[in-house]
């Protein structure tokens, strides 16, 4: 078996290197070089290790050459089609989805060389009437799917989608009399979702649908954020966990007939993989479970590394770019961590248990073993997935082990019950509705655990602190040294040393970060919220936020709440909104859900505005006081004074917005919201502005803001542009030229992320 791993692992590694790091032009030479090296080693005598080396060379060669061939058959025709309008005939492969401006649908698009490319077609709401298996004809402007939100990304490629198209004109649709077999799972998945929605109460239907089908659309933003903060988001993204639950239930129900049970369980997992959309994590889990079921039937022992490397290779052969998907990387990393570490951790915690006990002690022993196994599995997975989570998301959940330990048992019950109720609902709706109420109880428990633990101030911490980064490096260094140096009969208790060191150093890192924040006279952070604005202020234990809106992948309210809660702040003294536009306010609802806000300050304008009325209603619902300003006001925040300037104009949200000056004895920062040049001149005339250290450039760098008059008046040392991907041309070249001419050091959130300034006392 390890001979197979010696080929599969290097082949998979070569494909991952080719996709993630290496230029395309290197692949063919590297593949030929590895092939020649392998052929040369055939001339040398030797077995054993030499055989494994030869297999590794051939595996590397196969990986590089296969990726080069795949790119030639997919990317080459995709590039030829990109950048122009094409008339096409394609097949719909999945259910359409509503978008902000209409709808989108995935299609299989034939090319001239016979390759069928995955593509996403964007159009109006008429696309929502399409079904998987429909044949569509039309015209669309096609582009390579290598960007997401204006940034280079392999997200689409990882899903096998290489083109995006904007529909031109109407579509011709032909619906088949009988849906092709390959699209049946999509219909089954929709049917299960409908049955879950009918059978379960509304408060848990979204969770059950996520558990059974992987569809998270039924979860509101606040709930899904809670899953992310507690490190339990994997339970609502169908993965190996669910396949394990399914296989366990099937094995218990189907009895002891090994061959029959194995075949039926494998078929059941294949159907479930289709319902879940054939995601890489589900396919990986189904393959590994299949290997475990087949091994005894052919009188072979299961081998974890071989099965894992072979599963990865099969997925990458189907689509090398699947290796760029975060889901696949996390899925295989978690299984690798479980295989390498879970059993060792379990033995370290249970070696001292007596072998023979009776009565209550026996039950206690069994409960302890179950808890130890669950915790060992969770920690094993976290050890390997944490570096990836930090790299991709820059955040670490500190409560993940406890949240998983408390919730996974109920998740298993809810998953099995949800799947059974969804199937039963087809034949006995009344009974399914009754059982839905029963199995809603473990679902409510899961939501209670997740929502409750997500509210802990330090449930998740962003790794933007040098102290926390240092702690993470120290922790992994200690664990690696322990794994290398552990020897002798006392090995079972030695994990206590790196674990205790890790806990103590984490406490020290958090205390250092909090002390640094509190020692500063004023800390100002321009948060990275995409195209929008959200500025955090902190001084001597008091906190405020100016604006809370943006277009980033994460809700701007979550971004702000994460920032404050990771620093031990659970309450805001004030939320100041410069005006009511969405790019400054669309995260307020989520912020109020997660944090207590004592006072909401906003301009007293646009009384009939739906945005204003919605914000004031949210504030009232959460017990937040409201102060509407039409005159200047002043707010004290610790050692900082915040001067809030009244609206300087009229005629719209930008013209009727607030601006403010945050000051200490040694530091001044000016925020002008979305003011234009005319209003900036009025602010200079009536605001008595000092020279400032930091200017938050107006209107995200618009050419109509940050005028020469304002720059001459305040002479900022630093200018910060809160900006993200947009179609407005922000920041404008003219604005950048003015700021550079004024001698400002320019910082941008779209390039640098969250930007922080600290004014010492």
Automatic annotation (TrEMBL):
InterPro entries with a match to the protein in the record: ComA-like_MBL, ComEC_N, Competence_ComEC/Rec2, Competence_DNA_uptake, Metallo-B-lactamas, RibonucZ/Hydroxyglut_hydro
Keywords per UniProt: Cell membrane, Membrane, Transmembrane, Transmembrane helix
Residues of the Metallo-beta-lactamase domain: 531-725
Subcellular location: Cell membrane
Lineage: superkingdom: Bacteria
Membrane topology: Multi-pass membrane protein
Highest classification ranks of the organism: Bacteria, Bacillati, Bacillota, Clostridia, Eubacteriales
Record carries keyword Amino-acid biosynthesis: no
Alphabetical list of SMART domains matching this protein: Lactamase_B (SM00849)
NCBIfam families: ComEC_N-term, ComEC_Rec2
Protein name: DNA internalization-related competence protein ComEC/Rec2
